[in-house]
Design goal:
Length: 205
């Protein structure tokens, strides 16, 4: 695939990743954990969504790594590390001591997961800004950047209150994460369309 096709495919996969994971939780015959819908990362421990979570993240990570932009490659590597170092799920007793592919202590994996997620968020925002500066169709990138920044603010507020035990709106995490992925994916897809349009114009002239 050329980079234009990779970009459009990356965008579509990013847009549909949260939708596929959430849909899997609703239609799967397997029983869901009580807090599977609290975040996309929490679906790692849920029997009905873990397959969709791992497959979507692997495909999206590979597509990002194969993109030409350095920022895309970095986000791809970070999303891969999210799979290696999952968050901690305190509601599952068997996973309190160790978790993830490396079977490391769950509290250590959770801390690494948080750092990786923060870095991924920073680079995703940077890439949206990069698209905004590079491409002509400013509207989609401005809207995406606003949504990403709003989601980021909500995540920060949520983490501050959650650390004090004062946050009860559990659905906000998966909502903000879905907003991030959909906005990020929209930028990729639209940038791929713009690149494709430029190639058609240059080839016809």
């Amino acid at each position: 695939m050329n980079n234009t096709t990779i970009k459009k495919t990356t965008g579509l996969v990013a847009i549909f990743t949260p939708l596929i994971i959430i849909l899997a939780g609703f239609i799967s015959p397997f029983k869901n954990n009580e807090n599977w819908w609290h975040s996309l990362s929490a679906s790692y421990y849920n029997q009905s969504t873990v397959g969709a979570f791992i497959c979507c993240f692997i495909v999206l990570s590979l597509l990002l790594i194969f993109n030409k932009e350095i920022l895309s490659k970095i986000v791809g590597v970070l999303l891969t590390l999210v799979l290696v170092f999952p968050c901690m799920d305190k509601t599952i007793p068997v996973l309190k001591d160790c978790t993830g592919l490396l079977k490391i202590p769950s509290n250590i994996s959770d801390n690494i997961h948080s750092i990786i997620s923060l870095l991924a968020l920073i680079f995703m925002i940077s890439e949206v800004i990069y698209f905004l500066c590079k491409y002509q169709n400013k509207t989609i990138y401005i809207v995406s950047l606003i949504l990403v920044l709003i989601a980021t603010v909500i995540i920060v507020i949520e983490n501050i209150y959650h650390s004090n035990g004062n946050w009860s709106l559990h659905w906000t995490t998966i909502f903000t994460e879905s907003t991030l992925f959909i906005s990020f994916g929209s930028c990729f897809y639209c940038s791929g369309l713009e690149d494709e349009r430029k190639l058609l114009i240059s080839s016809s002239s």
